[in-house]
Amino acid sequence: MAISKGDKVRIRREESYWHNEVGTVASVDTTGKYGVLVRFEKTNYFGMQGTDNGNLTNSFAESELDRA
Question: Which residues form a coiled coil?
Fold first, then answer.
């Protein structure tokens, strides 16, 4: 599928907070299992506890992503 930096992707990993969400590929590293770093607009559940902190990125395997 050859995902590259800047591509919009949909997350297929069911246990992910961002399942079925669309994010932007921030970087691709082909040396590891979870080599695709995806950036999202909204923070995950760590940012929902009265603070502005939270993760905006997560790493995924290329097989867990679909082009959006």
Answer: none
Look at residue 24 and tell me if it is in a domain: yes
46 domain-assigned:
yes
- List all residues 6 or more positions away from 16 whose beta carbon is below 8 Å from its beta carbon: 58, 60, 64
Cβ contacts of residue 8 below 8 Å, gap of 6+? Answer: 22, 23, 24, 25, 67, 68
Amino acid at site 21: E
pLDDT band at 55 (very low <50, low <70, confident <90, very high): confident
Confidence grade of residue 51 (pLDDT, cut at 50, 70, 90)? low
